Structures are given as structure tokens and as C-alpha cells.
Amino acid sequence: MLKRYLAPLVASLVLCSCSGKTIDAGSTNTIASPAIEQDLLSRWNTVAAGVTVTGFGDFQWKKVDQFPHPTYKGGSSEAYQLFAGVLVAFFQNGDNFDFLAQNGLFTLSLRYVFPSGQVGVETTFEQLTNDLASNQWANIPTDTRQKLQAFGVRIQMAQ
Questions:
Q1: Per-residue b or e along 7-17, where b marks 16 or more CB atoms closer than 10 Å to that residue's CB
Q2: Rounded CA gap, 86 and 51, in Å?
Q3: C-alpha 101, offset from chain centre
Q4: What does the alpha-carbon distance between residue 19 and residue 101 come to, in Å, rounded to a whole number?
Q5: pLDDT, tens only, 1-50
Q6: What is the rounded distance in angstroms from the CA atom of residue 128 to the CA atom of residue 138?
Q7: CB 110 within 8 A of CB 128
Q8: What is the mean pLDDT of residues 121-149?
Q9: Cα(66)–Cα(64) distance, rounded to whole angstroms?
């Protein structure tokens, strides 16, 4: 009987990271501190302000489990190009890169959770950076891809 209660506890502990982030075993994504969560969203929204995809809206990140992945902004080349630009601007703005490193957020699970609770997309800042840096089909400008490649190296060094 004790085994029945320990299994969920062990599963939850395995999902916890000591690097400053906590991924809940449920359908929501949480960060160890509500202040860090709000700071992260605010930092993202500062650089995403005013960037819109024709017919699909902006890249504002309103809820931690509603990451504005370009797939949900039409999934077009335009959406991926604009998103890649926002990601580069996010890393470059102020101390954002150091903030992510200090709080262990490069591998934070970035999810888009539907109202049903189903996870539509799940990625990380590290994975997005590497994927967009090597993306050929979306015609991401070469200079943007080169910046993302450089950030990919910095992310590896920071971990």
C-alpha cells in the first residue's frame, strides 16, 4: 500500500530540477518562484511587443503554459522568421541571457496547453535556438541564424 503512494511522489521528484525550475507532473508548467515566472513573461513581452503575424496576432506570452510558438501563429515562413527575430532580440535585450542562465531556464519546458489540457507543443529555449539556427525551410535570414548559432554555443557553455 505504501508503494501506491510513493510512486507518484517519486515521479514528481524526478520531474523536479535543482537548477531553479520545477516542472509539474500535471498539464501545467511551473517555475520555482512566481516572481521569476512573471519576470520571464515580462522580459519576453517587452521584446515581442508590436511584432505581429498577418492574420494571426502577436507573440505576447500571457500565461506560462501558453508559450507563443510560431506553429500557433499560422506556422508560416513569416511566423517562424518573426519568431526567430523575437528570440534573438530576447536573448540580446539587457541581461535576459544571464537571467535565463542564472535561473536554469534554458531547459525549461515551454508548452502550449489547450483548454482541454492536451499539450500541443513542448520545447525549450535551448531546443528552439538550435532548431531555428539550422532551419532552412522557413527562410530565416542568414544573419538571424548565425546569431542563433552563437547563442546555441553560449547556452551550452552556460549549463
A1: eeeeeeeeeee
A2: 8
A3: 13
A4: 9
A5: 333 333 332 222 222 222 333 333 333 445 779 999 999 999 999 999 99
A6: 14
A7: yes
A8: 93
A9: 6
117, three cell numbers:
489540457
Let me know how many helices (H) and strands (E) the chain has, helices first: 6, 6
| Angstrom distance (rounded) from CA 133 to CA 15 | 28
State the amino acid at position 101 in one-letter form.
A
- The distance of Cα 121 from the centroid of its chain, to the nearest Å, equals 10
Taking the C-alpha atoms of residue 83 and residue 28, their distance in angstroms, rounded to an integer, is 23
Query: To which H or E segment does residue 119 belong?
Result: strand 119-123
Beta pairing partners, 58: 52
Rounded to two decimals, what is the model's pTM?
0.80
Q: Which helix (H) or strand (E) holds 12?
A: helix 2-15
